[in-house]
């Protein structure tokens, strides 16, 4: 029987992609914009912070956005949130959407996939082109991490449709082909309980030709959750058929991404 614990697959394997700021009207020619787009995030953060503190209105919002996204790229989540959260109320729809996407990436990195999926999906609707496609891709990754395979596939399909570059479109199409499934027979907060369940599941799984059961360690809010899983299937239908033979407590879940 499954404990009442959050069910997550293993760590999400993220492709490193920047949310590129393509139109900051007030600072379009500034060095910190160029620094951000070139991946020089420390320099971008210094320049954008200085500009934000000496500007007002739209120009300040645009500089604050670069400061927040640069801090996010540098892994300074606390500073990134301090810059980005006020921008959710920006009158500039593009600035607000990019801030939402940056906050979504922070939530994803911290394992809060519910918040990440919501923020990134909302950002994708407000953005255009490759930026919208990237946000949809990341939303799909968080949905996959939550075991919501079909909604994740929808985000990947949106990303493939929205993408303008061949590179981003190819990534979305590759994600669409990664619809692997597994059968989850338990989720535990205790490793010992998970190992006990794995040994029990081994007997049933072996008799059904599904291979050995395994314990997959997932994380939520910094805490470990131990998932007992059996088999790997190319389609959901295959997994559903196998689940019927494992008992009523088994569920179909997304297989962990490699």
Description:
This protein has helices at residues 31-37, 41-53, 57-73, 77-84, 93-109, 113-126, 129-145, 149-162, 166-176, 191-207, 236-243; strands spanning 181-188, 213-220, 223-233, 251-254. By secondary structure, it is an alpha+beta fold. It folds into 2 domains: 25-176, Tetratricopeptide repeat domain (Serine Threonine Protein Phosphatase 5, Tetratricopeptide repeat), CATH 1.25.40.10; 181-254, Alpha-Beta Plaits (2-Layer Sandwich). It has a 4-stranded antiparallel sheet, covered by helices on one side. Strand 2 (213-220) and strand 3 (223-233) form a beta hairpin. It starts with 30 loop residues before the first helix and ends with a strand.
Q: Which residues form runs of ≥5 with pLDDT under 50?
A: 1-18
Distance between the termini: 27 Å
**CATH C-level label of the largest domain:** Mainly Alpha
* % residues in beta strands: 5-15%
Task: Provide the CATH architecture of the largest domain.
Answer: Alpha Horseshoe
Q: How many domains, in number, for the residues?
A: 2
Radius of gyration (CA) equals 21 Å
Strand order of the largest sheet: 2-3-1-4
What is the share of helical residues?
55-70%
Please tally the β strands and state the result.
4
User: The CATH topology of the largest domain, please?
Assistant: Serine Threonine Protein Phosphatase 5, Tetratricopeptide repeat
Q: Tell me, what's the shape?
A: elongated
Q: In sequence order, what are the helices and strands, one letter per element?
A: HHHHHHHHHEHEEHE
Mean pLDDT: 82
């Amino acid at each position: 029987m499954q404990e009442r614990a959050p069910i997550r697959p293993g760590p999400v394997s993220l492709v490193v992609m920047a949310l590129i700021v393509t139109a900051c009207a007030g600072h379009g020619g500034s060095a910190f914009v160029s620094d951000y787009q070139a991946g020089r995030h420390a320099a971008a953060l210094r320049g954008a912070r200085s500009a934000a503190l000496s500007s007002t209105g739209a120009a300040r919002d645009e500089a604050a956005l670069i400061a927040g996204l640069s801090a996010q790229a540098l892994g300074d989540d606390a500073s990134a949130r301090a810059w980005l959260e006020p921008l959710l109320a920006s009158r500039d729809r593009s600035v607000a959407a990019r801030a939402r996407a940056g906050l979504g990436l922070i939530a994803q990195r911290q394992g809060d996939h519910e918040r990440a999926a919501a923020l990134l999906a909302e950002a994708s609707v407000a953005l255009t082109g490759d930026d919208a496609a990237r946000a949809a891709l990341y939303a799909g990754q968080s949905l996959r991490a939550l075991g919501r395979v079909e909604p994740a596939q929808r985000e990947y399909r949106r990303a493939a449709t929205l993408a303008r570059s061949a590179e981003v479109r190819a990534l979305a199409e590759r994600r669409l082909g990664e619809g692997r499934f597994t059968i989850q027979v338990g989720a535990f907060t205790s490793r010992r309980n998970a190992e006990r369940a794995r040994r029990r599941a081994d007997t049933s799984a072996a008799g059904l030709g599904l291979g050995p059961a395994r314990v997959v360690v997932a994380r939520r809010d910094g805490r470990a959750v131990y998932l007992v899983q059996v088999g790997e299937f190319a389609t959901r239908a295959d997994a559903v058929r196998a689940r019927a033979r494992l008992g009523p407590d088994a569920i179909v879940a997304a297989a962990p991404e490699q």
